[in-house]
Amino acid sequence: MSGTVTAVSRNATYSFTKPNHESIRLLAGLGVEGDAHMGETVKHRSRVARDPNQPNLRQVHLIHSELHAELAEAGFTVRAGDLGENITTSGIDLLGLPTGTLLHIGETAVVRVTGLRNPCAQIDLFQKGVLPAVLGRDENGQVVRKAGIMSVVLTEGEVRPGDQIRAEMPAQPHEPLRPV
């Protein structure tokens, strides 16, 4: 399974959206250099309030550009970085990856998929109605979270739009993605 990076984003301050950049640098064990969510321990404010010492399983947030297209069809205007993602992708089924998948991005960067992004109410503050649009239900009535995946950096490297992404699946049995 493979895909392409369509945009990269980071923000040194805590805000919902992240501006696009020509490149971002992934730092092993930390995340995106210069991003407010970079670090070994959690940086998301609600998680810090619960336990500031828990490991940061949300160092790099990836969203598929196909979600942006789906939201546009529903009447929303959402661009790369608007939902807080660091890497926007195309052509790879991020939501279909199992936990532990290694994503080789660009020449050297490698991230390990830790789970799903659990969309929160901030999404509706960005644009009213987007939260229910990034949540759905499957044929069994289970909630489907479509707001991307989270990962941790194993090997550092520069990531740029146009870089290739290659998925390396973990050993069987595969563990489905859960919110982190």
TrEMBL record:
PROSITE patterns hit by this protein: MOSC
Cited InterPro entries: MoCF_Sase_C (IPR005302), MOSC_domain (IPR052716), Pyrv_Knase-like_insert_dom_sf (IPR011037)
The MOSC domain, residue ranges: 18-168
Top-level taxon in the UniProt lineage: Bacteria
Official protein name in the record: MOSC domain-containing protein
